[in-house]
Protein 1
Amino acid sequence: PGGFGGIRALNHGRACFETLGNFVFPQGYGLAQAHLAFDEGGALKDATQQERLQKSLNGFLDYAAALSRIG
């Protein structure tokens, strides 16, 4: 677990899935020091990170809905 939250790996994974013809959600989300970011109940400790994650998830849902409309 590092300070970049797996961002470098996201690009490699994206390239592989796109090469196979998959649609890939264009917005990545990395969580630095993820092993320290959650409380005992599994919630993010940092409200800013929670807001970023929620925004990313909402964007994903919009993306999935748009894809479902095209077939």
Protein 2
Amino acid sequence: VIEQYRENSPNRGKFIRVVYNGTPLSIPQCHESGKHHDLNEKFCTLDAFRACIRQFIPENYLAECNDMKHE
């Protein structure tokens, strides 16, 4: 499960937490300072999470779907 949280205080953003079988996962790319919530490393900043998963998101869906038709 991917959960999204937002802090109401000024200058704070959105955070993502990934949970598997009821256990929050630790994402190594979010451990650096500034890439997670100040109190809990398992809450990634939205920007850090996007950077982490960007490699898994196709840039051109149509091209990739057409390639799959020929396999």
Protein 3
Amino acid sequence: VEHVPPHARLYALVRLPPAVPDLALAQHLRDRYETLVVPGSLLEAPGCLRLGLHAPGPQLEQGLANISAAL
């Protein structure tokens, strides 16, 4: 994945590999890992996930580990 630096620092966009559909990955993360992200397709950024960076450190680290595992 590729990180797009956030402007407001509350959220970040993560660009997914071309073969990974953002909507399906977001649903899989929710269903399997209880990890919530916003699919970029809903934000005119298909192929990306929007991540909230405001979660406490351990929750953010677990969320990132869940995304890694899902990929």
Protein 4
Amino acid sequence: PNPVTTQLTFTLPENINQATYAMYNMQGKIQKTGSTNQKQTTIDVSAIQRGLYLLKIITNQEIYTKKVLIQ
């Protein structure tokens, strides 16, 4: 996991220019959703409780899932 405190930044792969994302807690409840058409996106996670989450990034080619630790 990559620890973050107030902001989470992710970068889309080179050939991708559009994606949607969702952040889930470990019980599977959605905490934050959004979409982007930028290569690098920053999400404000300051209102989300500390803990371990899953960030799912959905593009037209793949679905990426990453663990995120909010401290």
